[in-house]
Write a structure and sequence with these properties.
Strand content of chain B: 25-35%
Number of helices of chain A: 8
CATH class of the largest domain in chain A: Alpha Beta
Shape of chain A: globular
Protein name (chain A): Electron transfer flavoprotein subunit alpha/FixB family protein
Keywords (chain A): Electron transport, FAD, Flavoprotein, Transport
Strand content of chain A: 25-35%
CATH class of chain B: Alpha Beta
GO molecular function (chain A): electron transfer activity; flavin adenine dinucleotide binding
Number of helices of chain B: 6
CATH topology of the largest domain in chain A: Rossmann fold
CATH superfamily of the largest domain in chain A: HUPs
Cofactor (chain A): FAD
Largest sheet of chain B: 9 strands, mixed
CATH architecture of the largest domain in chain A: 3-Layer(aba) Sandwich
Largest interface: A-B, 92 and 75 residues
Strand order of the largest sheet of chain A: 7-11-6-1-4-5-12
Oligomer: heterodimer
CATH topology of chain B: Rossmann fold
Distance between the termini of chain A: 45 Å
Strand order of the largest sheet of chain B: 11-10-9-12-8-1-6-7-13
Number of domains of chain A: 2
Largest sheet of chain A: 7 strands, parallel
Structural class of chain B: alpha/beta
Radius of gyration of chain A: 21 Å
Helix content of chain A: 25-40%
Family (chain A): Belongs to the ETF alpha-subunit/FixB family.
Number of strands of chain A: 18
Radius of gyration of chain B: 21 Å
Distance between the termini of chain B: 53 Å
Shape of chain B: globular
Chain lengths: 321, 248
């Protein structure tokens, strides 16, 4: 009856979302009077999950699962949920977890709510609050099935330590050829760069940068902050930056701790895509730019003067901390 | 190749979002509707399959009569025919059940659906549809080519991309990048005229369990005003980010 979570790894290490998920699930488990079981795949560091309230780990080691395959991972999670007789499965909102979640929902005949923010509003009936209308509103959803799946919105709960004593056991689910009907030929990952999805800070540039030749301002600011870089839709449409860096309603969603917008006016579609970020800073020479209405902190000034100065200040700050 | 493109009828991206009836319903008053942008990328890719490889393109929507102008727009862009499943799309699973029925009856090889709609942002319809039918499923698809029944495609992953190969029948979750922005089409007069005579079939829904339901909506609390920092006093910005916001 325990709650099942999928604790995601990347290169053999847990992702931060795995700990956020564990923190969240252990709080929900408390209110349901149950415990949290985590499924891990090809990761031997189970103990780290105990700090965030996980009391049992089902550890899968299988070479076939070295590369993420949605159908196979959904199949593994189904078998884990059945083994644990879990009535609630909690996933993250990473690209991979979102991909597998809808397959798992069909596998388990489960009602599924994604983009969930905050703890359940009620556990009987089971109601959760979720982001909808591209972060312009919340929607309270009731799940009526016996087995339920929810996907937690990134950075919506945070990390909360809550030590539990953990037992880990090996888990050997059965896999079949159909699980691998999508064959992964190659994976390309940008190295030495922080991915937008994993970043705590995102620095984003707009048309105010005037051209791709000035992008070093964004990159230098990001590098001083250990941040990922992103851009507005016009910048990707103009081909200054690849579309994979476009954040906004039709681009990538951003839910980060700190979002810094440089030379972005703040079109409603852009704001919708980044609004789930906790703290927003805008640097723009136009005080009437709509971004100032949604930002927490703003600097009215020329990006070409403000950003180099800000980089120096951040480097000085880093040296002291 | 028979392609089905699933079209959501969603509020335009600039719409003000309001609710009525004690915050239990979306307020459609004054809202302009469009083809969901992720679906539009998919539709555009489907039309190029039609032009280059002789595929037929059907568009489908699960919704009431008010969604027909959106389907007509898809026909004006170039789809061969449209189907409207006459039902209120109560949740993602309900919609997936309807689509699965249409796909089974129409023997479609490739199903393209936006990976997420801009209204409920559930992101579950493409995967559930594939799951129900036991079709192959590729989400966050930014490139696809089909040769016979063999498929090569690219999926966007966190921090990169992966190249995959698979076979039809297949469902893909479409997103930005699948076609270039400049290739998106605005219906021309000829397209709009011919769309009027293309078939738009109305189909009755099949039964599906009510797994989830939206019980209420809320708007975010109003935001406090921005704190402005002088460009000559950036130490103050660092101080606020460190001590007040605690994000650096």
């Amino acid at each position: 009856m325990s709650i099942l979570i999928y604790a995601e790894s990347s290169d053999g290490k847990f992702k931060k979302v795995a700990f956020e998920l564990a923190s969240y699930a252990s709080k929900v488990a408390e209110s349901l009077g149950t415990t949290v079981t985590a499924l891990t795949i090809n990761n031997t560091n189970s103990d780290e999950l105990a700090q965030y309230g996980v009391s049992k780990v089902l550890a899968v080691s299988n070479e076939k699962l070295n590369t993420f395959t949605a159908k196979a991972y959904a199949d593994v999670l189904k078998q884990a949920a059945e083994k644990e007789a879990s009535k609630l499965v909690i996933l993250s909102s990473s690209t991979d977890s979102i991909y597998l979640s809808s397959l798992l929902a069909v596998n388990l005949n489960a009602g599924f709510a994604s983009n969930v923010v905050g703890l359940p509003i009620s556990t009987s009936p089971f109601q959760v609050k979720r982001n909808a209308f591209s972060n312009k509103a919340f929607n309270i959803t009731e799940i009526n099935t016996e087995v339920k799946i929810i996907a937690l919105a990134k950075n919506s709960y945070g990390l909360h330590e809550n030590s539990a004593s953990l037992t880990a056991e090996d888990f050997n689910p059965s896999l079949n050829d159909a699980d691998f009907s999508i064959h992964i030929d190659s994976v390309e990952k940008a190295t030495g760069k922080v991915a937008i999805a994993d970043a705590d800070i995102v620095v984003s540039g707009g048309r105010g940068l005037k051209g791709p030749e000035n992008w070093h301002l964004i990159e230098d600011l990001a590098s001083a902050l250990g941040a990922a870089t992103a851009c507005s839709k016009p910048v990707s449409d103009l081909g200054w930056r690849p579309h994979s860096e476009h954040v906004g309603q039709t681009g990538k969603p951003v839910a980060t701790n700190l979002y810094i917008a440089v030379g972005i006016s703040g079109a409603i579609q852009h704001i919708a895509g980044i609004n789930a970020s906790k703290v927003k800073v805008v640097i723009n020479n136009d005080p009437e730019a709509p971004f100032f209405k949604v930002a927490d902190y703003g600097v009215v000034g020329d990006a070409f003067e403000v950003v180099p100065k800000l980089i120096e200040k951040i480097k000085a700050f880093n040296a002291q901390h | 190749m028979k392609i089905l493109v699933c079209i959501s009828h969603v509020p335009d991206t600039t719409s003000k979002i309001n609710f009525t009836n004690g915050d239990t319903e979306f307020d459609t008053n004054g809202v302009q509707y469009v083809i969901n942008p992720n679906d539009e990328y998919g539709l555009t890719r489907a039309i190029s399959f039609q032009e280059q490889q002789g595929a037929t393109v059907t568009v489908v929507n699960v919704g009431g009569p008010e969604t027909e102008p959106t389907l007509r727009k898809a026909l004006a862009i170039g789809a061969n025919e449209a189907i409207r499943v006459n039902a209120t799309p109560t949740d993602g699973f309900f919609v997936a059940k309807q689509l699965a029925e249409i796909i089974k009856n129409g023997n479609y090889d490739l199903v393209i659906a936006g990976k997420e709609s801009l209204d409920y942002n559930g992101g579950m319809v493409p995967g559930m549809t594939a799951g129900i039918l036991d079709f192959n499923f590729l989400n966050s698809c930014t490139n696809i080519t089909v040769d016979g029944t063999n498929v090569k495609a690219i999926r966007e992953i966190d921090g990169g991309k992966e190249t995959v190969s698979t076979t039809l029948p297949l469902v893909i979750g479409a997103q930005k990048g699948l076609v270039e922005e400049k290739d998106l089409r605005i219906p021309n007069m000829r397209g709009i005229m011919t769309a009027r005579t293309k078939p738009l079939t109305i189909s009755d829904p099949v039964e599906a369990p009510i797994n989830t339901k939206a019980v209420k909506f809320e708007k975010p609390a109003p935001k406090s005003a921005v704190k402005l920092v002088s460009p000559d006093n950036l130490d103050e910005l660092i101080n606020l980010l460190h001590n007040e916001a605690k994000v650096i």
